Amino acid sequence: xxxxxxxxxxxxxxxxxxxQQEALDNGWNITVSVVDDSGELIGLxxxxxxxPMTAMISAQKARTAAFSHKETQFFEEMINGGRSAFLxxxxxxxxxxxxxVVIEGQVIGGVGVSGVKADQDAQVARASIAAMR
Length: 133
Prior knowledge:
Shape: globular
Distance between the termini: 25 Å
């Protein structure tokens, strides 16, 4: 029988708190979303001043990272590199800022951030996951 770790309330809160702190330290108005390994939303925090659409975008980035087991930056770079046919893939959130949560080699969820430049979204997502460990 295989066993896996899961994202519980403690881990979700650690991710949300770390993302908020990273954003506040940089003066960024973002939304961060956390999904489990099935892509279901289990946490979301929209900071004051973040545009409403960032909630939807961050959740889609998180889902794509969890489903694909890849950072969403991979897909954005592929599309920008000329593989425009990938836009027809049944995924949303193909923009940088989604990062899978990996524990002991297994993807147990994803974090998506939206609200600032793509590399800054990714910076917040990575920092939030690092704080969970």
